[in-house]
Amino acid sequence: KAGVTQTPRYLIKTRGQQVTLSCSPISGHRSVSWYQQTPGQGLQFLFEYFSETQRNKGNFPGRFSGRQFSNSRSEMNVSTLELGDSALYLCASSLFSGSGNTIYFGEGSWLTVV
Amino acid sequence: QKEVEQNSGPLSVPEGAIASLNCTYSDRVSQSFFWYRQYSGKSPELIMSIYSNGDKEDGRFTAQLNKASQYVSLLIRDSQPSDSATYLCAVNRQGAQKLVFGQGTRLTINP
Predict the structure, then answer these.
(1) What average pLDDT does this structure show over B68-83?
(2) Count of CB atoms within 10 A of residue A94's CB?
(3) Which residue of B has its CA nearest to A102?
(4) Rounded-to-integer distance, Cα A58 and Cα A45, Å
(5) Do the bridges between strand A74-78 and strand A64-68 make them parallel or antiparallel, or are there none, so unpaired?
(6) Nearest CA-CA distance, residue A64 and chain B, Å
(7) What is the pLDDT of residues B31-58, one digit of tens each?
(8) For all residues of chain B together, what is the average pLDDT?
(9) CB-defined contacts A:B, below 8 A
């Protein structure tokens, strides 16, 4: 059974550009959430999607957005990139939304903003 | 006060010994508790989940939860060098998918 798949794995962008990251959840999983990991702030929740609806949002500016498609695949977008957006972006999936569900992480997308 | 607190370490343990990792959380409505292991340059990998008070064992790993004290721990028995990693404690509250992570504890197992 394939795990959570994220693309691209590595990317370098320039300040002011935008970036789109993609995530395919484990087959059958309907909840997809996104996290940002930096050395200073650790792992922080960005947002969660379930059945194409955003269920929960973390404390990030509006430059960070996401969506989920009918096949549960998800994308997140960061516009007007800043140097501080350099991070590992992790997608996670679970069968359902809500507490008590086991959450599995993908390998992540390493974003460097120069 | 941070929602989830862990000793950042580094924690150094000799091979074959028991490694003990601790985590406290502030939100009393937290319902689910997880331990993830993260190797350098890799993504977090789920080690244990625990939902009710007491101990839960899986191989060399034991998770312990005390909701009254808002405390969760992970014990690693017969520590191996391959256990050297950062261990992340994560909690989520009732009804929410959002995981809140601690800063992680760096564990080093010395041969």
Answers:
(1) 96
(2) 22
(3) B49
(4) 5
(5) antiparallel
(6) 16
(7) 899 999 999 999 999 999 999 999 999 9
(8) 93
(9) 64
